[in-house]
Amino acid sequence: KKRFVLASRPDGMPTRENFELKTEELEAPKDGEITVETLYLSVDPYMRGRMNDTKSYAKPYEIGGTFGGGAVGRVIESRHASHKEGDIVQGGWGWQTHAAVNGDHVVPVDPDLAPVQSSIGALGMPGLTAYFGLLDIGQPKEGETVVVSGAGGAVGMIVGQIAKIKGARVVGISGSEEKNRYLSEELGFDAVVNYKTESLGEALERACPDGVDVYFDNVGGEVSDAVFLLLNSNARIPLCGQISQYNVSDPEPGPRFLPLLLTRTALVKGFLVGQYQQRFGEAIPEMAGWMREGKLKYRENIIEGFDNAPEAFFGLFTGENLGKQLVKV
Ligand code: NDP
């Protein structure tokens, strides 16, 4: 089997040097364990935070330890009563081609519901992040304007479509023409802004003639500064991610617009998808239903080959991915 371990901690943008690829004997499952063969690995922005040795909501990765993360795989051997050979499961065994894992720590995946890899994408962690952040905190109402940053990514494209389902006017911000074309032509976003090529303030004003009622923030930094200027009274801001700051060694000072939040009586609320675990069971069937009705679509950006997992991960910070970034093992 092969696995990636953390070789060193990055300063700024991570590089290949921070990873070591190990080839080892596949361990046999112990009582209560199953052996899985990985089909797809997830690469996610939060992993960058876990590469640092700083206190956060998730424990830092250990030097020499397996690079952790979500994966979906097939059971090839089982010593656990609830799983049998051939079953598809999803779990957190990280960047490994095979692993012996505790059978209580994986979740069965129904291959008839949707392609199995969506259990770590649109119907998994990123999709649930979009669902709960938007509906629980953002609470978009018919006719309101919802702006989402990181709109062409795994979380962002689901946010925009759920906001459309709720009758809102949806504006997406991304850094690529290809992403913006997909958002407006395929997903029906009402307006799109390219933060790399357009003058952000002007483009946003054009895109949001009635101001902004909900801002789903995936990126932070200058993009968010520009959106904050357009907030309406009683705006809601689900604070989901701040990817523009993840590779910055000296974080930019901020937030710069606290007086604005006060006078617009805005709500800013950070959240972690894990807080909603008890309610995943209500969200997944509802989202799967929207998919069957054609109201919720998703894209995956699939890189082939286990050995390319670090490059797939780096691409998240340069915007290579349209939709959920996955590695097909
Ligand atoms: P994405 O699929 O959106 O991939 C990341 C995207 O971020 C890139 O494609 C890129 O798109 C954009 N990006 C990268 N650097 C910058 C930058 N400096 N400024 C602006 N945009 C940038 O990732 P996810 O959908 O998985 O995650 C989106 C956000 O949600 C992240 O911040 C993540 O940490 C957060 N998150 C939070 C969770 C929670 O529980 N709170 C759970 C899951 C995710 P572009 O081409 O537009 O630049």
Secondary structure blueprint with pairings:
Layout: E1 2-6, E2 19-23, E3 33-42, H1 46-50, E4 71-78, E5 88-91, E6 98-102, E7 107-108, H2 125-138, E8 145-149, H3 154-165, E9 169-174, H4 177-186, E10 191-194, H5 200-207, E11 212-216, H6 221-228, E12 231-239, H7 258-263, E13 267-270, H8 280-292, E14 300-304, H9 309-318, E15 324-328
Parallel strand pairs: 8-9, 8-11, 9-10, 11-12, 12-13, 14-15
Antiparallel strand pairs: 1-2, 3-4, 3-6, 3-15, 4-5, 5-7
Helix pairs in contact: 2-3, 2-8
The protein binds NADPH dihydro-nicotinamide-adenine-dinucleotide phosphate (NDP).
NADPH dihydro-nicotinamide-adenine-dinucleotide phosphate binds at residues 44-46, 126, 129, 150, 152-156, 174-176, 179, 218-219, 223, 240-241, 243-244, 271-273, 316-317, 319, 321, 325.
